[in-house]
UniProtKB/TrEMBL annotation, chains A, B:
<dbReference type="InterPro" id="IPR036388">
    <property type="entry name" value="WH-like_DNA-bd_sf"/>
</dbReference>
<keyword id="KW-0238">DNA-binding</keyword>
<protein>
    <submittedName>
        <fullName>Transcriptional regulator, MarR family</fullName>
    </submittedName>
</protein>
<dbReference type="GO" id="GO:0003700">
    <property type="term" value="F:DNA-binding transcription factor activity"/>
</dbReference>
<dbReference type="InterPro" id="IPR000835">
    <property type="entry name" value="HTH_MarR-typ"/>
</dbReference>
<dbReference type="GO" id="GO:0003677">
    <property type="term" value="F:DNA binding"/>
</dbReference>
<keyword id="KW-0805">Transcription regulation</keyword>
<dbReference type="Pfam" id="PF01047">
    <property type="entry name" value="MarR"/>
</dbReference>
<keyword id="KW-0804">Transcription</keyword>
<dbReference type="InterPro" id="IPR036390">
    <property type="entry name" value="WH_DNA-bd_sf"/>
</dbReference>
<feature type="domain" description="HTH marR-type">
    <location>
        <begin position="1"/>
        <end position="150"/>
    </location>
</feature>
Length: 151, 151
DNA sequence: CTACAATATTTGTATGTACAAATGTAGTGT
DNA sequence: ACACTACATTTGTACATACAAATATTGTAG
């Protein structure tokens, strides 16, 4: 469906407006699809995101500001996200011995196991949207998005 | 900046994953930029969205479900969005005489005036991101996004 | 006409987000 | 040592979102 039909526009729109709406709406479609996946395992998308970042640390714990800077939505409240993950025993949180201002957050085995289960589901979710595009088109889309974003 | 640098990825990612993260992150960048614009006029992005939909009605009032289906984020709570706009006297809300289950929401002159002020700012915001792309590339990006989304 | 399903909207509740202020710790200059 | 600034995180508050349940109205089958 074209974006004009999605929002049932009555008058023609400029190309820049169509692109913006298309990106906003596409993100929404992706986000809702991913929400379902995460929710089925009692995670919010942002909680999943934190777990993924912690696994990327390969054993090393991450402190709060490291997590924050690696998140997609930079304005999330990391403290409360980690609180929720703690309750589910998917992460640990300890004061950093070298610098007591910092916290060391690490993923637990239970957290790693959960990610392992989710991996193929997430891969499939990511691949699903690319089904209609050739490899060449995928590369092009990726390049255009980066060019577009870097104002 | 490439998306790998944005999220400071340590290991290489698949193209489908890069595209998804790129769309999510780009939406975030656009959204935060637009939030500032809306906020400067005491509107949330979704409140602006409702006003824009109501103006598109060209005088005809819209009922709640019409507003809902034209919004980008379909899960917003339209009742409470309209509540906020009512308080600012940017819209009116009345029971529909033909069907008392429905509400008729219409934009006021004050609302139209506000949109008029915002129009050039929003146009500029939309155009800004396209600056790096040729007309041809813009068309291509738009087409690829629609192809991508329609799973 | 009555009971029941369908439609349109509102409300309640839990959760998430945005942002400012507060807290606690570390580094720096005097 | 002292005051001061910078840093890292947490907390408070208002607002937004997700989703189920409640309310009110209309349409419909028997």
């Amino acid at each position: 469906m074209k974006i004009e039909e999605v929002i049932k526009a009555t008058t023609p729109m400029s190309l820049p407006k169509k692109i913006i709406l298309n990106i906003m709406y596409t993100q929404n479609v992706i986000g809702e699809s991913f929400s379902e996946i995460a929710k089925a395992h009692d995670l919010s998308p942002e909680q999943y995101n934190v777990l993924r970042i912690l696994r990327g640390q390969k054993g090393k714990p991450a402190n709060m500001c490291v997590i924050q800077e690696r998140m997609i939505a930079k304005t999330s409240n990391t403290t409360r996200l980690v609180d929720k993950l703690l309750l589910k025993e998917l992460v640990t949180r300890e004061v950093c011995p070298d610098n007591r201002r910092k916290m060391e957050v690490a993923i637990t085995q239970k957290g790693l196991d959960l990610l392992k289960i989710l991996d193929p589901v997430v891969d499939n979710h990511e691949a699903k949207f690319c089904n209609n595009l050739t490899e060449k088109e995928q590369e092009l889309l990726n390049e255009l998005l980066e060019k577009y974003r870097n104002v």
